[in-house]
């Protein structure tokens, strides 16, 4: 074997020193979840700075030719006892700030490790320690030492992606504070004995800083708190700022930035003039005594309970931890439970297993030089980590201060840092550490799968189905059929169908009367009522009928044109109140274990049924505007002006302006006014709320009949490469052309647009699993289009995702999955056999087709 010094000299030119901007992966293997703490440690390539576990470093060496790797291993030290008060160690302090990693906040307990670092030269795995370098030539010693020091000193990619410090008490100065007008009404607030002026409640009392009204605070989702009288007062008067009585102390006298609540800004804010504002109503901060928990203290209490198993679900039950293949926990990276829950369920679906896990060796062999940025590689890595069982092992006992530990089901699990960074990159929400909606993430991930599976098998087809919408003009009784692709059934919750209405009304009455002992009653909604609400006809009051050439009333009925292999049902628990404030419906729904949707199969055009003519509605014009190019206006066979760009429609500028002032994009506002026929702000607002998730929501308005117009792209300027890509997905060239025109020749937007606008392409015979209106009479073979599977509409429940909290933007997600007839709860790193799966409280339900 060659001398190690000579070998090191021969590879010296490949050893780099990390520079600013280099991505150093020293915490996680690019192809697995191995880390320096894993058995065998982590090998960091000293040229590309990619990290590899022991099972993949040889493969990287063989493929790249790189030979020098920095081998990092960490061994956990034994944790010292903390209960030695006699040794001078103070007991741990309770957190006083809603923060992480800063003074007064939650402690971030750092594990103590013994770290071993050395250079390893492949393929013979010759080792070079720091001591060995001291005996080598200067040029070798300096270069290798600088590289080693640079790698160890650099922030790892995973480190830079994590939030090391978080302070929930960093608030913004209220825009109302500096110029707050206070009424000279003679009101003086006593130092104690406060009661709500409406309901006499004595807890959770707030004083409005404008008029001195003393009222109770918000009602919490569990029925506790106040009766919303302070909030109602703001809604009636517009007086924006309030302070919670009982939380004012002399502690704030030196630092006058004390928190108050701004109803208008919907957040805790700073009021630099608070002492002055309080003294207006006779309150001297120096004499006040704290009697109530501040909002921060309440938030801290809630956050301390978030990790407790009893709060998550199945309270009061000792759950049996489970380990093995398919039973791997996932670490919470900071509000990533939505991602964890969704991915646990998806890798229970055979299509995702076969696409990514069964072919993992080929995927890794075909991976690009930087696999950390490759979608297929990172999804396969995650899937294998969840299903292999390699990481489904009990977490090391961290010890506890009482000398006794109680098993809670925690696992070593996997930390999907690379995966989360990749799928969230560039996304305004999923790239952050904020809580997100699991349903939105599911659709986002499916969209990414669609984009990355334009050739070959596509596992998202397991969820894809066609929806048929039948619209019948009530004046002419003629019908229109459209089809669109969807992945999720959104099930409405008809609150008026609750079976325990009397209990709900009684509980509400007692709460309004200030009865603090009033029980919390959950609305019991029959699943059959939800399905009936989904399938019943919808009344369209402003339907433009091409048969009668005017607006009239129509009915819209929605049915399944195909049934997917796996059906996802979302319970629409999150809604908006009359004040547009998001709220969560506290409901229990008796979701069944088996489901038969055969009765909801679409039937297509009925015998003897006439179809509405394929004529676009006229653009909005004032009566004195003459439009060339519209049928009936200067049209003849020799004139091609029918295909000329239309004049701009006359829109109600005041309505457009009002919508823009609400923060909506200008083009979206113009479309809302156009498509609602200048009928006013309410109709336009409803249109916007119904179309906010459309991929082309902010795209320029394209008028019917225009060959090219604002926001469209002439055919000659379309990218042939983009056209070929969309055609390769099964669409026709005409369909691809229309999609690219509508999205300014942007490929990703065009793909989103074509999948969500099949109804807009109806006249181009976009159909699958059924016949379009044109084919119904012609009997032609189905044209190319998105592939959908079809089969019987009978299903069985195999998983559901539950949400706890008042909003999708906060709270916690867990998933329950049926494994070998046993329900298993996946709560981040905890994986246990479920004793009482709360199937009536789920948010997303996953069914698979029952084989006949």
TrEMBL record:
<dbReference type="Pfam" id="PF00443">
    <property type="entry name" value="UCH"/>
</dbReference>
<feature type="binding site">
    <location>
        <position position="216"/>
    </location>
    <ligand>
        <name>Zn(2+)</name>
    </ligand>
</feature>
<dbReference type="InterPro" id="IPR018200">
    <property type="entry name" value="USP_CS"/>
</dbReference>
<dbReference type="InterPro" id="IPR038765">
    <property type="entry name" value="Papain-like_cys_pep_sf"/>
</dbReference>
<feature type="active site" description="Nucleophile">
    <location>
        <position position="337"/>
    </location>
</feature>
<feature type="domain" description="UBP-type">
    <location>
        <begin position="172"/>
        <end position="285"/>
    </location>
</feature>
<feature type="binding site">
    <location>
        <position position="229"/>
    </location>
    <ligand>
        <name>Zn(2+)</name>
    </ligand>
</feature>
<dbReference type="Pfam" id="PF02148">
    <property type="entry name" value="zf-UBP"/>
</dbReference>
<dbReference type="InterPro" id="IPR001394">
    <property type="entry name" value="Peptidase_C19_UCH"/>
</dbReference>
<keyword id="KW-0863">Zinc-finger</keyword>
<feature type="compositionally biased region" description="Low complexity">
    <location>
        <begin position="767"/>
        <end position="776"/>
    </location>
</feature>
<dbReference type="InterPro" id="IPR041432">
    <property type="entry name" value="UBP13_Znf-UBP_var"/>
</dbReference>
<feature type="region of interest" description="Disordered">
    <location>
        <begin position="390"/>
        <end position="410"/>
    </location>
</feature>
<feature type="binding site">
    <location>
        <begin position="218"/>
        <end position="221"/>
    </location>
    <ligand>
        <name>substrate</name>
    </ligand>
</feature>
<keyword id="KW-0833">Ubl conjugation pathway</keyword>
<dbReference type="GO" id="GO:0006508">
    <property type="term" value="P:proteolysis"/>
</dbReference>
<feature type="binding site">
    <location>
        <position position="261"/>
    </location>
    <ligand>
        <name>substrate</name>
    </ligand>
</feature>
<comment type="similarity">
    <text>Belongs to the peptidase C19 family.</text>
</comment>
<feature type="region of interest" description="Disordered">
    <location>
        <begin position="498"/>
        <end position="520"/>
    </location>
</feature>
<keyword id="KW-0862">Zinc</keyword>
<dbReference type="GO" id="GO:0004843">
    <property type="term" value="F:cysteine-type deubiquitinase activity"/>
</dbReference>
<feature type="domain" description="UBA">
    <location>
        <begin position="717"/>
        <end position="757"/>
    </location>
</feature>
<feature type="region of interest" description="Disordered">
    <location>
        <begin position="75"/>
        <end position="97"/>
    </location>
</feature>
<keyword id="KW-0788">Thiol protease</keyword>
<keyword id="KW-0677">Repeat</keyword>
<keyword id="KW-0645">Protease</keyword>
<dbReference type="GO" id="GO:0016579">
    <property type="term" value="P:protein deubiquitination"/>
</dbReference>
<feature type="binding site">
    <location>
        <position position="263"/>
    </location>
    <ligand>
        <name>substrate</name>
    </ligand>
</feature>
<dbReference type="Pfam" id="PF00627">
    <property type="entry name" value="UBA"/>
</dbReference>
<dbReference type="Pfam" id="PF17807">
    <property type="entry name" value="zf-UBP_var"/>
</dbReference>
<keyword id="KW-0479">Metal-binding</keyword>
<dbReference type="InterPro" id="IPR009060">
    <property type="entry name" value="UBA-like_sf"/>
</dbReference>
<dbReference type="InterPro" id="IPR016652">
    <property type="entry name" value="Ubiquitinyl_hydrolase"/>
</dbReference>
<feature type="active site" description="Proton acceptor">
    <location>
        <position position="812"/>
    </location>
</feature>
<feature type="binding site">
    <location>
        <position position="199"/>
    </location>
    <ligand>
        <name>Zn(2+)</name>
    </ligand>
</feature>
<feature type="region of interest" description="Disordered">
    <location>
        <begin position="766"/>
        <end position="789"/>
    </location>
</feature>
<feature type="binding site">
    <location>
        <position position="206"/>
    </location>
    <ligand>
        <name>substrate</name>
    </ligand>
</feature>
<keyword id="KW-0378">Hydrolase</keyword>
<dbReference type="InterPro" id="IPR001607">
    <property type="entry name" value="Znf_UBP"/>
</dbReference>
<dbReference type="InterPro" id="IPR028889">
    <property type="entry name" value="USP"/>
</dbReference>
<dbReference type="InterPro" id="IPR050185">
    <property type="entry name" value="Ub_carboxyl-term_hydrolase"/>
</dbReference>
<feature type="binding site">
    <location>
        <position position="196"/>
    </location>
    <ligand>
        <name>Zn(2+)</name>
    </ligand>
</feature>
